[in-house]
Write a structure and sequence with these properties.
The complex is a heterodimer of chains A (about 120) and B (about 525). Helices cover about 40% and strands about 25% of the residues of chain A. Chain A is of the alpha/beta class. In chain A, strands 2-1-3-4-6-5 form a six-stranded mixed beta sheet, sandwiched between helices. The longest helix of chain A is centred in the last third of the chain and has 13 residues. Chain A is globular and about 40 Å long. Chain B has eleven helices and seven strands. In chain B, the strands form two sheets. A five-stranded mixed beta sheet of chain B has the order 2-4-5-7-6, covered by helices on one side. The longest helix of chain B is centred in the middle third of the chain and has 143 residues. In chain B, about 25% of the residues are buried. Classes of the chains: A alpha/beta (about 120), B alpha+beta (about 525). The interface between A and B is medium-sized, with 27 and 31 residues.
Chain lengths: ~120, ~525
């Protein structure tokens, strides 16, 4: 059975690209969401195994969405991968892809790396 | 103590002492003079008295002679009535002459304090006898004028009792004379005593003056010595103060210089802060489209990879995306004054870590890395990740300066700073004698273009070909080093190539604790 991945980012072109990239593996079922405030409902309905979540979005921050979903017992097993544009070289080096127990991916991310991180997260 | 205040203090007591001493001597001499005048009067009076007493005695002797002659002549019949009478007349005259003197003598004896009761009685008796005999003598004279024979008999009768009178008159006269002379001796004694007194007063006055002058002088001399020492000490103090002032001045100049530099840096920081805020906005706005492009290009390249002549196009686009991404990441680094996560760190490990992370850039260029570390380098309190970022930056710069085929030497030591070492303390953080850890990255590349050493750390300054550097790497590195209170200097090596030298302070307390911990 395919793993479900919810992609939340305010850029429709970006979510499309991610959907394209991940669906190519034929391992995942992807749903995208471009409005932060719809993300929670979408998650409850879709019941993803993993959520790719943009940090800085108009209306609602990625971290707020994650915090709310973590309260839901039905979604307690969900993995999160954060996507962020505002990360420096030093932070990348220092944080090595993890912040506050979560995994993050710096934009722009390459297709190979994206797939690797997602696969890694779902295997855990 | 100044001379003008010292002199009155010295002279006033001395002058008072001299005046007092002179007063005592002068007073005693005035006393002596008045005593002398009294004594002189006394002496004159005494001598006068003595002379008068002597004269009286002589008169008495004369009368006694006359009386004796008259008595003898009358008894032997050798003197006729006429002659007896003549002598008698002379006795009477002599009596008249003695009358006042004898009365005075008797009075004087009654007055004298040294006269005993017996002599007073004697004097009184003499006075009575004198009065009686004078009356008898006068009567004899009156009778003689009438009847010479009766007269002669009367005279002789009268004269018979005279011997006693003469004896007692002589006795009181002699006593008076000796009394006067005794008094004279007493006066002499008194005079001697006065002289002694005056002499003692004078000596006491002189000694007093000498003592006062001595003590005043001694006190003043002590004060003078004290004043001298005080003056000497204050001169030394002033010299010390001058030296301190000079040092203070030097320090102030240095502080002023540092302040100016800090102000310049602050202005720079302000500018950079604005850049930083801009950078964060730019990062968000540019990276999102870049992310779309990146995934899009990756997707396309996967679709078209088989058409091998298109691979190069995709590689170029990848490279361009990376460049744009790198610029923004550098900008973000540069603008973020992060707080440090300081940990006791071995610089060797940080260097090894940086070399490991930079190896993908270095190895393909056929560049050797030679490590030369001291084993005994103490740990330093730094943020190892940030320092690694600095070293990666410097290693990549070195690799780019070499291009291909060369070597990079990575050297780490701990040293006590000498004056020569301070020449490379670009931030002016260190002092001679401080214990520091140094890390140096030496390359044999193209070196820094002449005159550009100072500008290397300016933001957006780059000596690299267009597109290879953002011009922020060294500015970021320098910021990180300054946050660690360290220094970074890049200069050309004498044999070619460049050397980047970093210095970090060893916190002795911390390293002592470390040693204690590792020892236990």
């Amino acid at each position: 059975m395919k793993k479900r991945i919810l992609v939340v980012d305010d850029e429709p072109a970006f979510t499309r690209m991610i959907k394209l990239t991940l669906e190519q593996t034929e391992l995942y079922e992807i749903r995208t969401e471009n409005l932060g405030r719809n993300a929670i409902e979408a998650a409850r309905e879709f019941k993803p195994d993993l959520i790719l979540l943009d940090v800085l979005m108009p209306g609602m921050l990625g971290s707020e969405i994650a915090a709310e979903l973590e309260q839901d017992p039905e979604l307690s097993a969900v993995k999160y991968v954060f996507l962020t544009a505002v990360v420096s070289k030093g932070e990348e080096l220092r944080l090595a892809g993890h912040v506050g127990g979560h995994t993050f991916v710096a934009k722009p991310v390459g297709a190979d790396e994206l797939r690797r991180v997602v696969e890694e997260q779902l295997r855990r | 103590m100044s001379l003008s205040s010292f002199l009155p203090r010295f002279f006033a007591p001395a002058i008072i002492a001299v005046i007092l001493g002179t007063g005592m001597v002068a007073g005693s001499w005035l006393l002596l003079k008045s005593e002398l005048a009294g004594v002189a009067n006394h002496q004159n009076a005494d001598l006068n008295e003595a002379a008068r007493a002597t004269r009286l005695i002589e008169d008495l002797l004369v009368v006694q002679g006359l009386v004796a002659e008259a008595l003898e002549g009358a008894a032997s019949g050798q003197l006729d009535e006429e002659k007896v009478y003549t002598r008698h007349s002379r006795v009477v005259t002599q009596f008249a002459a003695m009358d006042g003197e004898l009365g005075r003598l008797i009075n004087a004896i009654q007055q004298r304090p040294d006269a005993a009761a017996a002599i007073r009685a004697e004097a009184e008796r003499t006075g009575h006898a004198f009065d009686r005999y004078r009356a008898v003598a006068m009567a004899a004279t009156d009778v003689a004028a009438v009847d010479t024979r009766t007269a002669r008999r009367n005279i002789v009768e009268t004269y018979r009792g005279f011997a006693d009178f003469f004896a007692s008159a002589r006795k009181i006269s002699d006593w008076y004379l000796s009394s006067v002379l005794r008094a004279e001796v007493q006066v002499q004694d008194t005079l001697d005593k006065v002289f002694t007194k005056v002499a003692w007063f004078s000596v006491a006055g002189i000694v007093f003056v000498l003592f006062v002058v001595y003590f005043v002088t001694r006190a003043q001399s002590a004060r003078l010595t004290e004043a001298y020492l005080h003056l000497k000490a204050s001169i030394a103090e002033r010299e010390r103060n001058e030296v301190m002032l000079q040092q203070e001045l030097v320090r102030h100049e240095k502080t002023a210089r540092e302040l100016l530099e800090a102000r310049i840096r602050l202005a720079e920081t302000d500018r950079l802060e604005a850049v930083g805020r801009l950078a964060a906005g730019v990062a968000h706005e540019v990276k999102n489209p870049l992310a779309i492009i990146r995934l899009g290009v990756d997707h396309l390249s996967e679709q078209f990879a088989r058409e091998s002549n298109q691979v190069a196009v995709f590689d170029d686009v990848h490279e361009a995306i990376n460049r744009a991404d790198n610029i923004i990441k550098d900008l973000l680094d540069f603008s973020r004054q992060k707080s440090l996560a300081r940990l006791p760190t071995r610089i060797n490990q940080v260097l090894d870590n940086a070399i490991h992370l930079a190896r993908y850039e270095i190895e393909p260029r056929n560049i050797d890395i030679v490590r030369s570390y001291d084993d005994s380098i103490p740990t330093i309190l730094v943020d190892p990740d940030l320092l690694a970022q600095v070293f990666i930056n410097l290693l990549l710069n070195a690799a780019q300066a070499i291009g291909r085929n060369g070597s990079i030497e990575v050297v780490a030591h701990s040293i006590c700073l000498s004056e020569r070492d301070l020449e490379r303390d670009e931030t002016g953080t260190f002092r001679i004698g401080e214990l520091v850890v140094t890390a140096e990255i030496r390359d044999n590349g193209s070196g820094v273009p002449p005159g550009q050493e100072k500008r290397l750390f300016e933001p957006f300054f780059t000596t690299k070909p267009m597109g290879e550097g953002t011009g922020l790497g060294l500015a970021v590195s320098r910021n990180i080093v300054i946050m660690h209170e360290g220094s970074i200097d890049i200069s050309n090596r004498p044999g070619g190539g460049a050397s980047a030298l970093l210095m970090f302070r060893v916190n002795r307390e911390h390293s002592a604790n470390e040693e204690a911990n590792t020892g236990s």
